[in-house]
User: Fold this.
Amino acid sequence: MFDELCPSALNPVRFGDKWAALIIRCLEDGPRRFSELRVPLGRITPKVLTHSLRSLERDGLLTRTVLNGTTTVRVEYELTALGRSMLEPMAIACAWVAEHWEQLLDAREAYDRAIRFDRAAAALPAGRRAAAPIG
Assistant:
């Protein structure tokens, strides 16, 4: 796992990369231009979108095609066969999230409550601190 040649290092959709999977899903129905990707990915900055697209292209999951028009140059991004092969495992992951949605939200809320309690308790003078509530 920690070997530099470990297959996990080649995983194109890294758990910390919130945009790669979304970009792949945006290209599921066919090629799109940069500006067309920005619409469904409204919170992404152009710089981050460019970086993510380059990483996905480097990993062989999409192609970047420059189309020379009569007046303008257009660039389209399209999934490769390798990129399309990511759609099924991603659908399985999305189905898992849908199945466990309530549990995930409950866990986050419980964690956030505990963190708030810990921070509030830490702000109290030493003699006034209470034990964390259970549950």
Observations:
- The chain has six helices and three strands.
